């Protein structure tokens, strides 16, 4: 299930809720927020579980320590487990309305298409993986269904970011390509500039910078090390940092569309994600 990654998916949804403006008026209810968090837990976990199901034969060669090839769980059991989590994700989204349901279906399909077909495609794979995260951000926005149509284009930013991480991750086992790592650095920069651009349009950029600076440090430090020596372990650390740093990125979104207090709530997820990353695999 990659529990540390699941925490970052919750951060995606909280960022989306901030973008929707749901937290601005007084009297908002915590129940829809809780349902969306449960939904993204189910959808993300289901997608990760099916990643291992579809990769089980390849993992017997490249990553025999993973649960299925190591014999901790059977392929059939993992499949049932994944279906259960997809059901949780779909069911809770259904309780919130049509927009959330459609987005949940789209996330599930994007996960399955990536796991089954797109993963090993040079361009389609990273874009497909990015789409999963972009849709997850919109799942949060769907807490006010009418806002999805207004802010759908913001999903392009996490699509670019996750696509870059996905490109990097291809070098985890056998080492990476420096050109690809440099390209990922360019995409990281585009993501940072994009968030700062919206912060500048909407008001005080100084608050957002407080979240962008640690975000940039967290993603560029291991990336630079991987560029200097693109061996598998260094690339793995760059990928791990990139995934967990999503919490900083989502906090930055919250600071742009809500306020620093909401952003700080999202940041509180970081220690939990880091702690889980020490006990469970991230990649």
From TrEMBL:
The GO terms this record gives for MF are: transferase activity, transferring alkyl or aryl (other than methyl) groups
Q: Where does the protein end up? A: Membrane
Q: Which GO terms describe its cellular component?
A: membrane
- Primary subcellular site in the record, as a coarse category: membrane
Keyword field contains Cytoplasm: no
Question: Record keywords: Hydrolase included?
Answer: no
For this UniProt record, the keywords arranged alphabetically read as follows:
Cell membrane, Membrane, Transferase, Transmembrane, Transmembrane helix
Spans traversing the lipid bilayer: 7-25, 31-51, 72-88, 94-115, 122-144, 150-168, 180-199, 205-223, 235-256, 262-281
Q: How does it sit in the membrane?
A: Multi-pass membrane protein
Q: What is this protein called?
A: Polyprenyltransferase
Organism, as annotated: Sphingobacterium olei
Native organism taxonomy: Bacteria, Pseudomonadati, Bacteroidota, Sphingobacteriia, Sphingobacteriales
């Amino acid at each position: 299930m990659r529990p540390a990654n699941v925490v970052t998916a919750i951060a995606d949804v909280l960022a989306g809720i901030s973008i929707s403006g749901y937290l601005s008026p007084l009297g908002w209810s915590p129940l829809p927020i809780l349902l969306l968090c449960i939904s993204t837990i189910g959808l993300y976990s289901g997608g990760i579980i099916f990643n291992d199901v579809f990769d089980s034969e390849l993992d017997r060669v490249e990553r025999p320590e993973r649960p299925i090839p190591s014999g901790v769980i059977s392929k059939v059991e993992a499949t049932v487990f994944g279906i259960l989590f997809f059901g949780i994700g779909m069911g809770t989204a259904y309780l919130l309305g049509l927009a959330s349901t459609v987005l949940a279906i789209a996330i599930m399909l994007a996960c399955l298409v990536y796991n089954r077909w797109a993963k090993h495609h040079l361009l389609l794979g990273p874009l497909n993986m990015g789409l999963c995260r972009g849709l997850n951000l919109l799942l949060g926005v769907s807490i006010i269904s009418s806002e999805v149509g207004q802010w759908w284009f913001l999903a392009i930013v996490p699509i670019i970011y996750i696509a870059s991480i996905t490109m990097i991750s291809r070098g985890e086992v056998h080492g990476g390509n420096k050109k690809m790592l440099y390209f990922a650095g360019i995409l990281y920069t585009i993501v940072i500039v994009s968030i700062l651009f919206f912060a500048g349009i909407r008001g005080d950029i100084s608050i957002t910078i407080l979240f962008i600076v640690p975000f940039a440090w967290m993603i560029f430090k291991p990336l630079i090390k991987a560029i200097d020596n693109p061996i598998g372990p260094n690339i793995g650390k760059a990928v791990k940092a990139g995934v967990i740093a999503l919490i900083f990125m989502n906090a930055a979104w919250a600071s742009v569309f809500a306020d620093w207090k909401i952003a700080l709530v999202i940041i509180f997820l970081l220690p939990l994600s880091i702690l889980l990353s020490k006990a469970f695999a991230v990649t």
